[in-house]
Structure formats: structure tokens, C-alpha cells
Design brief:
The chain is of the alpha/beta class and 327 residues long. The protein has 11 helices and 15 strands. The termini are far apart. GO terms for molecular function: nucleotide binding.
């Protein structure tokens, strides 16, 4: 294709490999470079995806001339590289969390706005098939008025320097998902524990109230295992029915009040794409590139990352004060 987009990836971690996989395989993109800190690791990753390694972002920008850059760095190292790229006038697709500080989030958004840049964030849970179907069912009124919703998610720890890494790095998906399905969260009341790693809040439980009047809960943990069945569960209960999302991509069940039968979606025998968590990112990329080519705003703008962070900081304040906090 003569109009292939030139895309570069900043990062060489495990999930950054998914970025490289997608853009190296798409027929409408060229993976023109991978940027990393370690020369040997970066060279190996670039060789695996038949592209050019760089250890300097500016050198990559000057030599590879990407149309779009994706950023997948350690969770607490997002701000400075992202701000630098925005300052260079580069359209971005970044990984969550956006950052850990609201002030830093505002600085990034302000720079992107000043530059008029495409600025997307990969909250890819939205693109799972069960989630897309759940959203459609809720919007169509199949559940009636939503009364309560629950998110539960957890596995092994991904410890950083922040005492709230579980909340901001992992449960950002839950905050975004609950608002995606049920509308804005208006207040939170939180409990947290650091019993397994003093000083780091590895498990939390939050009571929620939505702007609609519905209530909900969010339970997130680093004291569990991704090997367990039902690592992830979302329940949305309305006046006319209920839906359950299991393990993000595994199953959607929709029930109607008073009926013993239920409707179930599961990926069919040949539908490996729909049952694979990593491919939720492929789906997001498809939508993001369509918007980028059309000169439209991203389907998941970086503002969604800022919004999830705002709710997370309200949860932290609630835990610290012992009070319900308005968002």
C-alpha cells in the first residue's frame, strides 16, 4: 500500500511486544523503529520484528519520521517521555496508566491540545467482544434501569514505587469499564489493606455511586493469581435483567428478570481472535487508526486516562480520610 502509516514503538517490555506485533503485521502500517534503553535488548526486539533499533527518541524521530508513535514504558515512567514526544509534535497512542499525578496528566493534555495532536490511550478492555455486546445490551435497554454494578479483578503483584500501583495501574481498567457501561461515578467510599506488603495497598474495596443513582462496587487485588478461574468478573444488574462478563473475553451471560433461561455468548471453535485477550488491542488499534486517518479524535482519548486517574485519587482520599468523597 502506498499510503501505509509509519509507526514507531517506544518500549521493549512484554506488552510493547504486542505493539510491535500489531504494527509489523498490518498491511496498512510500517513499523519503522523500536526505541529502548538497553542496546542489546532493543536490537533483539527490532530484529524479531524486522525493523530498526534506536536508543534515542530524537534520533528515531529524525531518522524514521513516524506518522504515529506508540508508548509502552514502565508504569511510573510515562510522564517525561510522553511530554517530550508531544513537545516534538508527535501523534501518540499511549499505554495506561496515563500518569500517576493529576498535575502531570493536565500538563500532557494541555501540550497535546496546544499542538493539536491525536492523543489516544489504550484502555483495551472496552474492545473485548463480551464488553462490546454488554454495552450494546445496556444501551438498547435490555436491562432496564441499571441499579448496581460490580467489578472484581486481581492477580499477581506488579509492584512499583507507588503505594497505589494496584489502583492506578491495574484497576484503572475497572474505573473506565464501569463508567463506560454505567455512566459517570459521582462518589466513592474506600477500604484498602497493606497487610501483605506494608506501605503498599495491594488490595482495595470501593463502594460507588453513579450519577444515574445506581450504586456499585470495585474490588481489586494484587494478592490473588491470574491462574485462578474467574480472575475477572463484571456484573451489571438492572430492573429488567442482569449481565455477567467473565474473564474479559471468556463469556457474556444476559438474563431477564423472572426467567430461568439465559443468553450466553462464547467464542466459537474457530473464533480464536475473540477469545484472546491480546487481540482486544488489535481491535482498538483498528478503530484508532480509522479515526487517525480520518482526522478525527481518538475513540479512547487520553482524557479517559485522566478521568480514571481523577476517580482513583478520590478513592485514595476516601481511604485516607475515612469519608465518602465526591468525584
Amino acid at each position: 500500500m502506498d499510503d501505509r502509516l509509519r509507526v514507531a514503538v517506544v518500549g521493549t517490555g512484554a506488552w510493547a511486544a504486542q505493539h510491535a506485533r500489531i504494527f509489523s503485521r498490518r498491511r496498512d502500517t510500517d513499523l519503522v523503529g523500536i526505541v529502548g534503553r538497553d542496546p542489546d535488548r532493543t536490537a533483539a526486539r527490532a530484529e524479531a520484528f524486522d525493523t530498526t533499533p534506536f536508543t534515542d527518541v530524537d534520533a528515531m524521530l529524525d531518522e524514521a519520521r513516524p506518522d504515529l508513535v506508540t508508548v509502552c514504558l514502565p508504569n511510573e515512567a510515562h510522564f517525561a517521555p510522553t511530554l517530550h514526544l508531544l513537545g516534538r509534535g508527535v501523534p501518540l497512542l499511549v499505554e495506561k496508566p496515563l500518569v500517576f499525578s493529576l498535575e502531570e496528566a493536565d500538563a500532557l493534555l494541555a501540550e497535546a491540545e496546544a499542538q493539536g495532536l491525536f492523543f489516544a490511550i489504550n484502555l483495551n478492555h472496552r474492545y473485548a467482544e463480551p464488553v462490546a455486546r454488554a454495552k450494546a445490551a445496556i444501551d438498547a435497554g435490555e436491562l432496564g434501569e441499571v441499579v448496581f454494578a460490580t467489578w472484581r479483578f486481581g492477580g499477581e503483584a506488579n509492584i512499583g514505587t507507588s503505594p497505589h500501583a494496584n489502583l492506578i495501574e491495574t484497576q484503572v481498567h475497572g474505573i473506565d469499564m464501569l463508567e463506560h457501561l454505567c455512566g459517570p461515578i459521582r462518589s466513592v467510599a474506600a477500604q484498602m489493606t497493606d497487610m501483605t506488603l506494608p506501605g503498599t495497598f495491594t488490595t482495595l474495596a470501593v463502594a460507588l455511586r453513579f450519577a444515574s443513582g445506581a450504586v456499585g462496587s470495585l474490588v481489586g487485588t494484587y494478592d490473588s493469581s491470574y491462574a485462578y478461574p474467574d480472575t475477572h468478573l463484571v456484573e451489571v444488574n438492572g430492573t429488567r435483567g442482569r449481565l455477567l462478563i467473565e474473564d474479559t473475553v471468556k463469556r457474556l451471560t444476559v438474563s431477564r428478570a423472572g426467567e430461568a433461561t439465559r443468553s450466553v455468548w462464547e467464542a466459537g471453535y474457530f473464533d480464536d481472535e475473540a477469545r484472546t485477550f491480546e487481540y482486544t488491542f488489535d481491535r482498538h488499534v483498528e478503530a484508532a487508526l480509522a479515526a487517525f486517518r480520518a482526522g478525527e479524535a481518538p475513540p479512547v482519548h487520553a482524557r479517559a486516562g485522566r478521568r480514571a486517574l481523577e476517580v482513583a485519587h478520590a478513592i485514595i482520599r476516601s481511604h485516607e480520610t475515612g469519608e465518602r468523597v465526591e468525584v
